[in-house]
Structures are given as structure tokens and as C-alpha cells.
Amino acid sequence: MEEIEDIIASSDDEESDLVDDDVHAFSWAIEDGTTAVKKTDRSVFLYRETVIPQKIREFFSINDLQPGQKRGITLWHGKDRFDAFIEKTIHTSPRTRLMWKPEFAALLRTHYPQWLEFFQKNRKESHETPSIYFVKRKEPNHYSVELEGAVPHEITTEFLVPLNAGDVIDNDTLRAIFQCSSQGGMRRSLRTNSLVLISDHTKSAYVDKWMNNFFHYTGMGLTGEQSLSFQQNKTLVESKTNGVNLYLFEVFEEGKYVYIGEVELADRPYRSRQPDIEKNLRDVYIFPLQLKGHKRPPLLKKEVLESKEEIVRKKVHKLPVEELAALAKNVQPDSGTRTVTTEVRERNPVVSEYAKLLAKGICQLCDQPAPFNNRDGDPFLETHHIIPLAQDGPDTIENVAALCPNCHRKMHVLNLPADVAKLKNKTSLKV
Q1: In the chain, which segments carry CATH 2.30.280.10?
Q2: Where in the chain do CATH 2.40.330.10 domains reside?
């Protein structure tokens, strides 16, 4: 009886149709332009509908919908087709809502009986409800629907990746293999029960890095403080228990995706301070990943790794001083990084740039100005690891000095104890 009373109250109370658009916006999100995600709620399970807020209407191509108009759409779950429609109400403050027929409601009841029962017995909402994914298809007004935690009956749970570590593929091939979105750094696919993690060193503002055979991967969220409960960050942090498989790709050249392998979360994510796309310093989460079976990452050619370091160097070189300082001071000590075919270890350009910044154009060993300026007009100094990387010296600001080319060569040839002590004293003042 309570469900019937709720439905009557919902249909009779015009005020319920006048709810501010912002109230519903929080339960929707757009992922990579091709997928709309709706976190289910009371209206989904009891009233066979959901309000579509302003920020989502463009996704469904309904910005031109006028009050009183309806537009039919088709939902696909696997091979099953469900008819639905989107309408704009004729109230003084009209709202736009997606409504579906009993057949799709029955599908939701089949997969989520516990949530139907929950809302029948409770008048409160819950933050633990599953999400519905609407994925655009080629046909206009047709959408594939994926239900969180549910796999279409004709899709096998066995998914084998037809790639070997080090294989290079394009974006279309990646999407076809994993049946995921074509954009974004975290691409969830319910059909293959996978989360594809992409570290694009050519585009992303993040500084992802291999350290001691662990890949430190920056979480999702381009603006503001990142949250572990936000979209695919939540999927990743719960990957030890939710059964989702993780696959890592790195991009060193635009459009070329290097398959690294299947990975797993190696440790709890930790916080770091990084700027967002609006250049505001904020907290981000770094996820330590490791290849399954404790494998080593595939070897890379020296020129590929050097190309990556140069890309990242140009990114961090443009950062304001305080942001660069925050990044450098949050670098985690490590005793080994990615090796390549020439046994070169990966260096962190953040540390290098910060060391040069603090030197202010003066060699930290001979205390003389840099011998010349580079093409950008900056004093030319080279960075030197006081305890060499080859001897497991850390790639951190305490172990990196900025030297003129002559002193740099002197350190590598002589490495005099007095010079080492002088550099250690100077770098210790950085923190």
C-alpha cells in the first residue's frame, strides 16, 4: 500500500514537478561525451522515471524539446530492446523526464530486487545504489544500457585480452577490444567487466610515473578536490573486492596506445598536491598499481623514455613556483624506476625543474652563474643526483643539485667527498 500511496502523491502533487533542476543534477554525470551515468534513486525503482537535468539534455539531443512534447527513444540491454520516451512537462516550471515501460522496470527489478524492496519500505534515499550507464549507439535516439554489477546474458564473463605487453594499438582498436568509451583516462566497460586505465603522457596534465616497479597513477577529476567516491575512482579503489579487471596503457606518441598489461591495486591510494586544469592547486589521489604476477613493465627504448621526460618537463616548466614546489615536495622516495633497453632509469622532471628553479641560475658547486642561457632564455644548468641512481639514490629534491656542465662532469669523474658534502648541505635546505 505504501508504494501505491507514494505514486499517487507523486502524480497529484504539482510541487513535486517543480523541483529545482539542481536537485537532480548531482545524480547524473557524463563520461567522455559518449556515456551518461545515472545513479539510481527512489523514482527509478518506484515510478519508472528519472528527471533529466539541464547538463544532461544535450547528451540525449533534447534541448529543442518544448513543453508538452514527447520524443521516443530505444534502450538496448544486450539483445533486448525496450521502448521509452522523454517528455517535457507543461507546468509553470517544466521539467524534463525519461520514462520507461513496465518491461524495463521488470529488468531493473530482476537485477536489483533488494533496492526495489528498500524503497518500498523506506522513504529515505541511499548513497549505495547502483548506476545505470546510457551509451550512445550509431542509430539516432538509440542507447545501450549497462547496469552496474550486471552482465548481459549473452556476454561471457570470460574475457581474454588479445594483446601482449608492449603491443601498440590505435584508439579504435582499443575501444573494439574492451567495448569501452573512446575517450578519457579511466574507461569503464561493464560488458568486459574491465576498467581501462590510460596514462597519456602527450596530453594529460598529470605526472604518472613508474617507481620501483609500481606505477603511480593519478585519479579521476580535472577540477577541484578529487574524491575516492567519485565515479571510476570508486571502481578502482574497490577493485580488490568488486571483481573488476584493470588494464593499463601508456601513450608516448599521440594516438599510439602501448599495452602495459593487466594490473592490480598494490596499496592504498595516497594524496598529492597538483594543479587542476584551471591552475588551482588541489588534492589528488595517486593509485599505486603493479602488474599482476609481480611482472616488470615492458622494456622501452631509450628515446621513447627521453621523449616522455621532455614532454613532462615542458608541462612542469610552465607551472607557478608554488605549484612546482608543492609537486616536488610530494614526490615519494623510490629505490628503482622503469628500466629500458639501455638500462636507463626514469627520472622525474618535476624534481629536475624544481632543483634548477631553486638554484636561480647559479651552479651549486662552484657558485658561478650558468655559462649561457638556453633557447627559452633560462640559465643552462644540469641536474645531478648526489647519490647516483645507479647506486639506488632516490629521485627526490634532497638528492638532486643543479650544476654547470663543467662541475657536473667533475662530479662524475672525481666525486670528491668535500664536493658531495657541500651539495648535500645545499639540497638539505630545500625542505
Answers
A1: 156-298
A2: 2-147
What is the distance between the alpha carbons of residues 324 and 311, in angstroms, rounded to a whole number?
A: 16
**DSSP summary character for residue 78:** T
**What pLDDT is recorded for position 331?**
60
Assigned architecture for domain 2-147: Beta Barrel (2.40)
pLDDT at residue 428, rounded to an integer: 82
Cell of 234: 570508486
Q: What are phi and psi of 341, to 5 degrees?
A: -65, -20
Residue type, 224: G
Residues facing residue 96 across a β-bridge: 88
pLDDT for res 194: 92
State residue 366's pLDDT score: 97
Q: Supply the pLDDT for residue 391.
A: 84
Q: Are residues 209 and 346 in contact, defined by beta-carbon separation less than 8 angstroms?
A: yes
Of 322, 309, 389, 391, the residue nearest 352 (C-alpha):
309
240-267 exposure pattern, b = at least 16 Cβ within 10 A, e = fewer: eeeebbbbbbbbbeeeebbbbbbbebee
Q: What pLDDT does 267 receive?
A: 92
The rounded distance, in Å, linking the Cα atoms of 100 and 85 is 6
- The amino acid at 19: V
* pLDDT in the model for residue 342: 45
Task: Compute CA distances 129 → 40, 45, 117, 411, whole Å.
Answer: 6, 11, 12, 60
At residue 26, φ and ψ (nearest 5 deg) are -65, -25
Q: Which residues contact 72 (CB under 8 A, 6 or more apart)?
A: 83, 84, 85, 141
| CB distance 318 to 310 below 8 Å | no
| CATH number for the domain whose boundaries are 156-298 | 2.30.280.10
Residue numbers in the chain where pLDDT is lower than 70: 1-25, 32, 150-158, 204-206, 301-302, 304-309, 311-324, 326-327, 329-346, 429-431
Give the model's pLDDT for residue 318: 63
**Distances, alpha carbon 359 to alpha carbons 267, 270, 352, 401, in Å:** 35, 30, 11, 8
Q: Cα 85 vs. chain centroid, distance in angstroms?
A: 33
pLDDT for res 125: 84
- Contact in structure between 177 and 249 (CB atoms under 8 Å): no
- Please give the Cα distance from 91 to 89 (Å, whole number): 6
Residue 391 main-chain phi, psi, to 5 deg: -105, 25
**DSSP H or E segment with residue 77:** strand 70-77
pLDDT digits 0-9 by tens, 327-349: 676 665 543 344 444 445 567 77
Strand partners, 272: 284
